[in-house]
Amino acid sequence: MKKKLKKQINQTVRSVFIYYLILVGVSFLYILWKSTVVSGQTGAGVFSGQMMKYAADKAGILSLAGTAAGLFYMAVRYRKTKDIRHMLRSKNPMTIRAFLAVFCVFMSCQVVFGIAAALAELILNPFGYTLSKAAENASAVSTTFSLFFYSTLAGPVAEELVFRGYIMRRLLPFGKKFAIVISAVLFGLIHGNFLQGSYAVGAGLVLGYIAVEYSMKWSVVIHILNNLVFSDLMGRLSEVTAEPLKSVLAGGIPAAFFAAACVVLVLNRGRIKTWRENNRIGKKYCLYAFTSVWMILFIIMEVMTAMNGVSKIS
């Protein structure tokens, strides 16, 4: 089992690795083209401030192009499987009560972001460092229509297809819980941001459960609803809202969802216990997964990327 699991993990993480390289590769190629063809710059000038500004101005279009190219790769890579069709198939009926319950638990993950940010500052500040840049990048709202379209629709759909479709489906033979955990960790890592990644892991656990027990259609709906209403639109509203209403939007709403999630978890503790017992992770499965070559390489790459969000206190 060890050999089989490691082989599957290596193949799966390698796919995520290539998918990530395609996403960032589109922006890289654009900067290179803009520099050498349009501006006639070469050498060190390729990644000048002006070239990076060009890429930032086209962030939405580049993200859409990169995502399309990445999805094309995943579709070709797993063209002989029925991963997406299987994950889209309905398992258990999604009632209004069930939807509200899982949505509250999902939204409570916002508190994880807040706690992670506070702890990070508490640890880093005494050494003269901060994660304020990472927090700013994680909570930034879209500035163009293309970026808005990507962050609220195309991005969530693509992420669900990749992580709750192709990736998690490949790991289900080793157990539901294991598949959910590993896909959530990979989902968090690919964000390349310590704070956003911590939130994405928690969100990925909930979305994975929804996709496995209900249907990936519902994980897509909740992902889009979160990015559209509670991320982008609420972020815009917060920017033009004065205190103390701004504080209520920033902290009160996540706190309310967290309280509701606690109630949901307490009321369903029996079901949760039964589900956990029926879906135990095999002995040493996580050890095998996180000591696989491609998993180690991916973790190192994403940690290095996330280090860009750590800066000195000015």
Strand content: under 5%
Q: Secondary-structure element sequence?
A: HHHHHHEHHHHHHHHHE
Low-pLDDT stretches are: none
Q: Given the structure, what is the number of helices?
A: 15
Strand adjacency order, main sheet? 1-2
Largest sheet: 2 strands, antiparallel
Mean pLDDT: 87
Task: Please tell me what the overall shape is.
Answer: globular
Count of individual beta strands: 2
Cα gyration radius (Å): 20 Å
Report on this model:
- The chain has 314 residues and is an all-alpha fold.
- The chain is built from 15 helices and two strands.
- It has a two-stranded antiparallel ribbon with strand order 1-2.
- Helix 5 (96-107) packs across helix 12, helix 6 (109-124) runs antiparallel to helix 10 and helix 8 crosses helix 10.
- It is globular, with a radius of gyration of 20 Å.
Which key features would you list for this structure?
single chain, 314 residues, two-stranded antiparallel sheet, 2 strands, globular, mainly alpha
In short:
By secondary structure, this protein is mostly helical. The protein has helices spanning 2-38, 49-57, 59-77, 83-88, 96-107, 109-124, 132-139, 145-171, 176-189, 194-213, 216-239, 245-267, 269-278, 285-290, 293-306, and strands at residues 129-130, 311-312.
Chart the SSEs and their pairings.
Blueprint: H1 2-38, H2 49-57, H3 59-77, H4 83-88, H5 96-107, H6 109-124, E1 129-130, H7 132-139, H8 145-171, H9 176-189, H10 194-213, H11 216-239, H12 245-267, H13 269-278, H14 285-290, H15 293-306, E2 311-312
Antiparallel strand pairs: 1-2
